[in-house]
Amino acid sequence: MARSSDYGAFMEKFELKPTSSSPEFPLNGLTFAVKDIFDVDGLVTGFGNPDWARTHSAATSTAPAVLAILRGGATCVGKTVMDEMAYSINGENKHYGTPTNPCAPDRVPGGSSSGSAVAVGAKLVDFSLGTDTGGSVRVPASYCSILGFRPSHGAVSTAGVIPMAQSFDTVGWFARDPVILSQVGRILLQLPDVDLARPSQIIIAEDCFQLSSIPNNRVSQVLVKSVEKLFGGDVVKHLILGNYVEEKVPSLSHFMSREIQKQDYNIASLAALSSAMRLLQSIGMNSRITMVNGLLL
């Protein structure tokens, strides 16, 4: 059941001290939590399902992503609730309870990295780790009104992370403070502490902004002005992303059903791309899970 004292965010609490507490380390003095999909030495990785937890042994090592954060000076304070076997973006779990969305208690927190997002949104930790296969960091970050980042596939090691669909699985992270989000990213992505190069172009997908119920000028124009201030107006390129994808990936026409094409509120080529990704994701998951005597092993 979800626990009110911690917004139902945690599966279990413990304390993993950083390998060094030197003030020189970028994450010194910060706390974080990890989704119950990451291995922590000596603990069972539950994967959001009690049968999975019951039929699997404790981990014999800690996931490299978690170790990297510990080496950066932060303290891990527990594992967080997640959607069952990571197969949802709602944030609900009938076995362990649904974490309470701290900014909208009557609404779901988003998932599958629900507890990690809630722990950050409720100010229980400074940042947290989650995973994102099809939105499992981006969705709860949006729902809980915090920052979330999904890096490119393969940019952060997924060793010691239970796979959901390996062709899409990524390690992501949450924070309230953009500075902390950046510091965590520099450690996980192993980025040098140098000034970023000026981008050659930044594309504004006009058709995607039009799908929002929020007036376009309240979102895209804020982004455009920020980009112009940082890099100059010559790098901004306005694009109809749906047309661009349709032109560059003609094979998507095989996924372009009549139902999709008739939806006025959708972008047909992006909806087709989503259908293709969901198909590949389901293939990846089905190859990972074996049914034995009715139990998921």
Task: Provide an overview of this structure.
The protein is α/β, with parallel strands linked by helices and 297 residues long. It folds into 2 domains: 4-188, Amidase signature (AS) domain (Amidase signature (AS) enzymes); 202-288, no CATH class. It contains 10 helices and 10 strands. The strands form 3 sheets. A 6-stranded mixed sheet has the order 1-3-2-4-6-5, with helices on both faces. The protein has a two-stranded parallel sheet with strand order 7-8. Strand 9 (291-292) and strand 10 form a beta hairpin. The longest helix is centred in the C-terminal third of the chain and has 21 residues, at 268-288.
In short:
This is Amidase domain-containing protein. With 297 residues, this protein is an alpha/beta fold.
